[in-house]
Each structure stands twice: as structure tokens, then as C-alpha cells.
Fold:
Amino acid sequence: MLKFIEILKNIWAIDELKNRILITLFFLAIYRLGAQVVLPGVDYNVIADAKIAGGGGLLGLLNAFTGGAFANASVFALGIMPYISASIVVQLMGVAVPYLQKLQKEGESGRKTITQITRWLTIAICVVQAPAYLYGLGALGVPDSAFVLGKGVFFIVPAVIILVTGCIFAMWLGEKITDRGIGNGISLLITVGIIASLPLSFTQEVISQLSSSGGWIMIAIEVLIWFIVVALCILLVLAVRQIPVQYARRSISGSSSLYSKRQYIPLRLNASGVMPIIFAQAIMFAPAYLGQMIGGAFGQWMQAAFSNMFGLAYNILFGLLIILFTYFYTAITVPTNKMADDLKRSGGFVPGIKPGGETSEFLDKIMSLITFPGSIFLALISVLPAVIVALMQIQQGWALFFGGTSLLIMVGVAIDTIQQINAYLLNRHYDGLMKTGKTRRVA
Structure:
């Protein structure tokens, strides 16, 4: 405890780190405050009584991602998900569209152009989703009495403008946190929304178990399982495979070459982080809507099967999408060709492997080998809430934190943020928040 207090003092002693943390907390507080501001023309008391996302399922998950804004009919009801969807579309198009491929190779200027395209696409998605959300409130059990001004043009148009503006403002907050704060801003906004629903979900589970035959013993078992799952998620995020690298250097006479101390290239078991889950979760809303559009017996089955995130069909497709997106995102974020070229230019090489093309093939092979178990583990953790609900019959809202999207995002973002703070501490020669773990190396 004393060491932890000392680390907090060290953090406070670094002005730049302290300012970044305070800025991050300030922007997160603004986002949480906005999640409680109800749209003009909507009666909050009626919305609260309707409890449109009080349980689990897709609505509960979407409500968690928005920090309760979805259920509150808040100005941030769309959350940051339209921006995530736009990012997915742009990255997918970047594989096939030559113009985007060209921008990706242009460095900083190309990245700024891609970011601008993503922002405009976010606005377009918001313009579609905002009226769909407003008209969909009735289908979610919200009575017409909740709309003080009715659902006419004088309510819909201003409400759509406010919802679009709220999403763009949330996107701006996320970018500012990334630039001036600590951690990834977009991921932090999602994480804060998820954490906000954790106390209520756990309280509801405690009340449910105490009113049934489970009691405190069942609650203790659930908490123990939860800690084990959290530990497994941490291992998944931190697991690294190290590739040995040596660098040649000239001797003083220049007549011969010596080899410097062996170094390593760290290849992460889960190089894509939480992005495959976010990508897959965004796409999982599509099958239910597709079934609604198809109609008929098959369409009704699709709508029912893929609206239940604890159902078998939903989780099979969800797991497969996570595996596919893990390979896809790893391929676009870990450029083995560029790594091999940079290694060759700097005079480095992998022992026993020729520099250049063979090194690139070797690194690509290693990434494929370690990505497979990583993607399987990621998929298993993601579908674990459905297994927990089926075996233990716990509350769906609490089950969302047993693995799945919510827990993996929380763990991944927490570790990423701690690592950034740790880097500041180590650069100032302070003790860090994390210790270096054991890693597996390629002989």
C-alpha cells in the first residue's frame, strides 16, 4: 500500500503526466454529464419507466457502450458507435479501394485525409441512425406520451440535429483525449460507459441471488470466476512472442564485422487488441435487420436468432467474425514487409534467416501461427457470457462482464492506459506501475 501511495506521488510530481490525467478526467466527466442530458421534447420520467434497455441482450450492450445514454434518450444516445462503424468501413475499403491504399502510403498527410473521410462518413451514418433511433423508441416500449411535442417535423428535425451533433462532439472528445490526455480516447469513452453500468448490474445480481436459493455462496463463486476470467484476459493482452535479432557493427579497424548484443522483436499474441470484437459487434446488428427485411418464416427466424446475443446461432457467428477480423486487423496493423525492410536497412537480421524477403516470410509465418490461438482464445472469451448464462442462470446484465465485449474492452483499455503512465514514470527514472513479465522467445 505504501508503495502504491509512493507511485501516486511520483505521478503527481510529473507535471506533463499530471496535466494529461486531469485533462482526460475532465473530458470523461463532460461525456458522462452529457449522457444524462435528455433530448428536448422528451419526458424523462416516461422514458425511465419504460426501461428500454434495463436488461441484457443487444439493447443492454448498446446501452452499456453509450453509458446509459441510449436508455435515457440522451443527446449522446448514439454514443461513439457511428464513428466506430465508419472506421470499420474505411479500413475495409482500404483493402480494395486504390485511392485509400495510396493515402495509407502517404504518411501523415494521407492519415489526415483518411481521418477526414471517416468523420464525414460518421456524419452520414448518424443522419441515418438518428431518425431510426427516434422512431424505434416506440417499438422498444416507449409510449407516445413520452414525446411532449409529438413525433412531427418540429421534434424530429431538431432531435436529429442534436443527436448528430452529440455524436460528433463525443468523437471530438475522444480525439482530444488521445492528443492531449492519456490513453486512447475513443476506447476510454466506451470503457467509462461500460464501467458506469457495472455497479448496478452487480447489485441486481446480488439481490437476485439473495432472494433465491443461491445466496452468498453463489455470489462468492461468481466473483471468483470473474477474477479468473479477468486474469485470463490480462494474459491474452500481455502475451508476447519475441523474435531474436542481431545487428552487425564494424570494428575499429574496419576490416571485420562484430555482432552487437542480441535484441528482440516483440510480436503480440493478440496484436489487434479489442478491435476485432468491436468490429464484429458492430456487424452483429445487421443479421437481425436483414431478417426483418427478408420477412417470411426464414426472415423471422433470423430476426429472432440474431437478436438474442445469448443464443447459439448468434454466438457461433459472433465467434467466427472475431476470428476473421483478428486475422484481418493483424494483417493491416502488423506490416511484416516493412518490418523486414527496416531491419535490413538498419543492419539487423534474424539468426539463420536471410534479410529481406525471407525475413518477411518468416515474420509473417510466426504471426500467422501465434494469431490462430490468439483469435480462438479471443473468440472463446467473447462468447463466455452466453455459456455462463446457460450454465449458471445469472442475470444477463451481470453476465456481460464475464468475458465478452465489455470485459475485454475494459481490460485492454486499462492495460493500455497503465502502460502509457508506466512509460512516463520509467522515463523519469521512477518505479513503474507494471513489472515485465516472462515472454516466450524463438530460439
Observations:
- Residues 357-392 form the longest helix (36 residues).
- Strands lie at 240-250, 257-259, 263-268, 348-349, 440-441.
- The first strand starts at residue 240 and ends at 250.
- Residues 28-181 form one domain.
